[in-house]
Specification:
single chain, about 160 residues, alpha+beta, 3-stranded antiparallel β-sheet, globular
């Protein structure tokens, strides 16, 4: 197994509250890792650091050169509310792929249990479970090397959990 990402001696605090100190972590290809902890203990912050959205107070992160990292957030981005399901998914494709790979988006949404009519629903009008399935689809459409799930089972049905 090859190493995808390594964290070395990460330190991070929120104000005066240390969330983690001298954290070492390696993620290898094929790993499935669960991070469990109480609310507010730093799980989402660690994900934000790993996905390069924020910087740690101290420490280093190294990523393999070909790492394509995607994140499934807890909540859908409000900027997607006016899009249809299909548009919100196609938006993750590069501009040159959007027309050519539209079939790929349709097939993925169908695999995740959406019917043809639902592909044209506006994101703001779908249920929490449907939004989670859409966020999952947005994460996997480009075949990432590593996916981080923040609260991965919220609002998901068994079929999607087994996908």
């Amino acid at each position: 197994m090859s190493v995808l990402l390594q964290c070395h001696r990460l330190n991070h605090a929120m104000g005066t509250k240390p969330l983690f100190k001298d954290l070492d972590l390696s993620i290898n290809s094929g790993d499935r890792i669960g991070l469990v902890g109480h609310n507010g203990c730093g799980k989402s912050t660690l994900f934000s650091i790993i996905s390069d959205q924020i910087s740690p107070d101290e420490g280093d992160i190294s990523r393999t050169n070909n790492l394509l990292l995607e994140t499934v957030e807890q909540f859908i981005d409000p900027a997607l509310n006016e899009f249809t399901l299909l548009e919100a998914l196609c938006e993750k494709l590069s501009p040159e792929e959007r027309d050519f790979s539209r079939y790929k988006a349709v097939m993925l949404l169908q695999k995740l249990g959406f019917n043809d009519a639902e592909l044209h629903y506006q994101v703001e009008h779908i249920s929490g479970g449907q939004q989670n399935r859409l966020m999952f689809a947005r994460a996997v459409i480009n075949d990432p090397t590593l996916i981080l799930f923040d609260e991965p089972t919220n609002h998901l049905d068994l079929k999607t959990l087994l996908f």
